[in-house]
Amino acid sequence: MVIVTVIELLAKRVLYRTLARIQKIRSGGISPETSAARNSPANRLPLEVVEMIIAYLVADKRSLRACTMTGRSWYIAAVPHLHRTLTVTVGSWDRKDRWPNPIMHVYMLGLFPFVEEFRVHCGGYCDRFSPKLLSRCILRKFSALTNVRHLEIQYLEIPKLIPKIQRYLKNFLPTVRSLTLRSPQGSRRQIVYFIGFFEHLQDLNLSNIYGPQGEPADDPTLIPTFVPPLQGCLEMNCICGVGLLKDMIDLFGGLRFYYVRLYDVERMSLLLEACAETLQVVMLSPGDPRGEQISLKGIQVTAVANDFTAGSSLRDFDLSQNKSLRKFKVQANLINSDPRSPSSRFLKHVLSTITSPVFSEVVITYWSSDFRGVESYNSNRAFFGGLSQAERAQEVARHRRMFEVFRKMPRAQDFLLVLRACLWSSVGEEPLRILEEAIAEEKAERGFNDFFSDPLVEYLPT
To answer: In sequence order, what DSSP letters do the residues of 105-117 get, joined into one string?
Structure first.
């Protein structure tokens, strides 16, 4: 039975090839499919125009795949964007994403030259990225990733990697320009030492680094191999009680970032002072419940403080020395509408310290719970009860009180108020119309020059 099936397949293959050859002869040496493709207007576009079109589709994978089948020039322009990012998950339940399957798949297809972003995520808290994942067979393929510019690793076990880092990450060290470490394992000295291996590093993103409980003892002999330029963007999220900023400044001889985005970071005044000559953009998130946007002066960092000035003075935060500052951005969705609240006083003080001509931008993010009558947080359904005219007016006034806080701030005439609504599911049109009414009333009076709301609504996955 198997022999008969094989014979039938061979016969069909010979038949199809013969028919294709006959069609090619009748069409003058060119198959109808090829002729149609060559005569298509899309294939006559200059490569520069094709690349401009593809640039608008970089986030639309489905459209990019369609473009790769349009013609050779479209394939060349689209395929790098399709395989720009390679993501692997350690401990994933999905076999397709589980380490090292994506690496093996992309390697066999010969697509490694297109990979510029390599991300390692972990499926659970117990999963770690360590040398035990890099066996000899996997490491041979892993080392072929030679064009990676952005490296992101979650739960990296730095102490186990440091002794043989040249063996495991040698292909990344000369090419990486942007490094993201989420919840890295190791002491602050080991983290700085690891960062120092990337000699051309520009951008740095660090998150979830706590201490001193359970922190390994620091080794004073760990001196960074290189002093990276670090002249790009610095993002730090939840860096508490480890003295990491001080070690970075001491071991790298200062910092030279031009963009800083911080949330829940201790000793931030050190960073502002270190980047006084280069810092151009500062973005803060004063919804910080710990009160650690300002230096703590020895206060217990693990204690929750619902006050921005807890354990420190507002005078510790000063932007007057940052003469290169051109833009100040603040994520203000959690600022209390009471102008006497700690968060409002904090923002007012920060703005009063700015001496250079700075453009200020305030971002207010609305969540589902910010709309009256809406019950959609962690739910697939959304409800909005009909409001009376008086209740509707109260809701408009509630939104406007938030705007009023900023209108009374120093330099309010320079504010650009950005509104975003990040919702877990649709809340309907009426709540958003109420918000738009509040915006319209605020615009009608003297206050902000303009509101920017693009996009006003952003739906989060449920």
So the answer is: HHHHTT-GGG--E
Check whether the bond before 229 is cis (ω within 30° of 0): no
CB 282 within 8 A of CB 325: yes
pLDDT at 257 over 90: yes
What's the CA gap between 341 and 345, in Å, rounded? Answer: 6
Closest of 435, 332, 418 to residue 374, by C-alpha: 435
* Tokens 């960062």 sit on residue: 195
Task: With beta carbons less than 8 A apart as the criterion, state whether 39 and 26 touch.
Answer: no
Helices (H), 408-458: 429-444
User: Among the residues of 336-459, which ranges form H helices?
Assistant: 342-353, 389-407, 429-444
Q: Decide if 367 contacts 422 (C-beta within 8 A).
A: yes
Per-residue pLDDT, averaged over 91-120, amounts to 90
Q: What is the arithmetic mean of pLDDT over 220-228?
A: 86
Nearest by Cα to 212 from 187, 246, 247: 187
Q: Report the amino acid identity of residue 305.
A: A
What backbone phi and psi angles, to 5 degrees, belong to 175? -105, -25
More reliable by pLDDT, 6 or 138 = 138
Element (H, E) at 217: none
The answer to whether residues 367 and 336 touch, using CB atoms and an 8 Å cutoff, is: no
Q: Where are the beta strands (DSSP E) in 123-251?
A: 150-154, 178-182, 203-210, 233-240
Tell me which residue has tokens 């309010």: 412
Helix (H) / strand (E) element for 251: namely: helix 244-252
Residues 167, 136: contact at Cβ < 8 Å? Answer: no
Q: Phi/psi class of residue 406: alpha, beta or left (left: φ > 0; alpha: ψ in -120 to 50)?
A: alpha
The answer, as to whether pTM is greater than 0.90, is no
Counting every residue written for the chain, the total comes to 462
Q: 3-state class of 16 per DSSP? A: helix
Cα(164)–Cα(319) distance, integer angstroms: 42
In whole angstroms, give the CA distance from residue 274 to residue 253: 9
**AA letter at 137:** C
Q: Is the dihedral of CA 403, 405, 408, 411 positive or negative?
A: negative
pLDDT of 382 > 50? The answer is no
Quick one: which of 409, 425, 442 has its CA closest to 335? 409
Separation between Cα atoms, residue 309 and residue 348, nearest integer Å:
13
Beta strands, E only, 223-318: 233-240, 259-265, 281-284
Burial-class residue 11 by CB neighbours within 10 Å (0-12, 13-18, 19+): exposed
CA–CA separation, 27 vs 35, rounded Å? Answer: 9
